[in-house]
Every structure is written in C-alpha cells, then in structure tokens.
Amino acid sequence: MGRLTNISGAEAVKAFQKAGWQDIGQVGSHLVMIKKGVRANLSIPQHKELSVGTLRTLIRKSEMTVDEFLTFL
Q: pLDDT tens across 13-24, in order?
C-alpha cells in the first residue's frame, strides 16, 4: 500500500478529475465534486495542505483505494 503525504486541495482536485470526478461548484472554501455512478459527493477543502486523515476519508468516499488514488497524482 502506498503512503499518503500532505498535498494541497488543488492537487487533490486534479487527481480526482483524472479519475473521472467533475466539479459542480464551490461552497465557501470547499469544492464539491460528483461522479456518475457513485452516490457520494466529495467536498474537498481548498487549503494549502490537506491532512492525511481528510485525504483518506475523501479517497474512501470516492470508492478508490489509496494505491489507485496515488496513480492519479
């Protein structure tokens, strides 16, 4: 299993876009993303650094593994 590090919210958005997620808008400092066929919405904070726990939760909600996410980074 790959190792997650702190990345920015913008880097996370780019990785999720490569995985097929689309942004539908922004609420405050969070970008909301959806993907056809997945019931969950992702709310990605646009901070300079995302904590590993927050990133891991977003990956779990997106129904990907950590290794799959790391390939999109």
A: 999 999 999 999
Contacts of 63 (CB under 8 A, 6+ apart): 38, 40
Using CB atoms within 10 A of its CB, is residue 3 exposed (0-12), middle (13-18) or buried (19+)?
A: exposed
Domain count, the chain: 1
Contacting residues for 26 by C-beta, under 8 A, at least 6 apart = 32, 46
Residue in 13, 20, 6 with CA at minimum distance from that of residue 45? 13
| 4 in a structural domain | no
> What is the model's pTM?
0.91
Domain range spanning residue 52?
A: 9-72
